[in-house]
Design a protein that fits this description.
single chain, Rossmann fold, 523 residues, binds 2'-deoxycytidine-5'-monophosphate, five-stranded parallel sheet
Amino acid sequence: MALDGPASSGKSSVGAAVAERLGLRFLDTGLIYRSLTALALKAGIASDDQPGLIALIPRFELREDGAGRLTRVVLDGTDATHEVRTHEVDANVSAVARQPDVRAALLDYQRRLAESGAMLMAGRDIGTVVLPHADLKVYLDASVEERAMRRIRERGLDPSGEEAEAVREQLRARDAVDRGRTVAPLRAAEDAMVVSTDGMDFDQVVTLISSLVVAAEAAKPKAEATGMNAAEPRPGEDEAAQAAPVAGAAARAQGTSRSNSRPVAAAPAKREKRSHILDVAMRLDNGQTMLVRMVARLSQWAARALATVQIEGLERVPRTGAVILALNHASNLDAIVGGAWVSDALRTRRIHWLGKRELFAWPIFGWICAHGGVHPVDRSTADVEAYRLATKILERGYVLLVFPEGTRSPTGALQEAKDGLAQLALRTGAQVLPIGINGSDLVWPKGRKLPRPFPRRRIVVRIGEPFLVSDVVPPSTDRRAAKAVATTAIMGRIAELLEPRQRGVYASAVRVPEPDEATSAVV
Ligand code: DC
């Protein structure tokens, strides 16, 4: 993973903290150029003597600090961690880092380090040159004024004094050298997420970058098959294509899957699609009817017949405003146990679901869907329709149930979530209510036709605190990064409500090891 950015943007300290938090290895590549510069100064080798500099490479070594971070510098066999940060090294390192043959000779060294296990690598050219295929590229930026102020505060200088002005001037000069050099100049890679940290404190930046790393890690298996940013719409593509899990999951929640459905007719004309959504939106009904109550009762009864069900935190279900119920998905039972008691807690408001249109053709079940808060989505255009309809539901201040993973997990543990949900939450400002369903996969695992009521097991539904994704996304975060941060936050909060076995790829996004106290009831 690549973390680039200008001098004093906080790469090293942020990178080290993120690596510690997530148990990654960390390398600040600036140390490499500093090591060579310190050696060259000692040996009297000029900064443009490329063969001389290259001959020094075997004489430095970076060692781990005990937490997997390569922060200790060893020159000629002795610890020189502090010697590479002197003013003399500061003054000469840019000239050394400018030498093309030296940079080329160091490439292999850096790449080998990155290959030997998950690593966060900080520098200037990591995303552009050293690791062009990195799973994640972040470009950490901040204005000269902001970066200078951090240094000025660190050193306790008067912000309006001469020394402070010198700090600003020095930063401008270093930026110019780093950006202006012909070989591996400082710039954000095309596919990097640019994070501007102006106005953010250290912890906020660490949390933000950690979220991006977790999101990239979660996407890894898929990335290997389809390319890292496969989930991101390409320019010109409708962003609604991101909402696949909204429609797909709702359809699956009704006990169906894409693979066993009938072939779908060609997509209708655009105008027709629009009118369909509008048509549905016009008829959106938000009250709990007799039928809705009855279905909830039946679901509770069915769930209790199959397992002991324990619900925690029902008092956290918001009584007003737009709400997205975000549930993990490990079993066909999730819609039943996740919806039935929450539906009661909502009192007069009903839960809205999105389901594929074919469901409505089923006898009885189709009628129940049509009158019970399930909205038909044409699967030939499911993603676009689902997104628009979901937006409409939330804009009206209603409650929408979503499985962010889009499909049941084959292992019962959280799998990567698509970012359609985060986008929906960011756009509509709806509250997100994280819900963790524990143990449903043991009663009715994916791949089995029928549930297993014996031996009798316990399903624990934990309801977390509702929150706004805008509260976890720092201002002025770029769109792609914002979605990744919001997705990780939502999934991290679901993971917190799950036993460790089920936290899966979001285990490291958990903020506290155990879910906090909540009222609980075995029902
Ligand atoms: O991040 P820093 O200040 O420790 O970096 C020291 C110097 O090394 C700085 O002049 C930029 C240069 N550098 C580089 O050219 N490429 C890197 N990947 C890392 C640092």
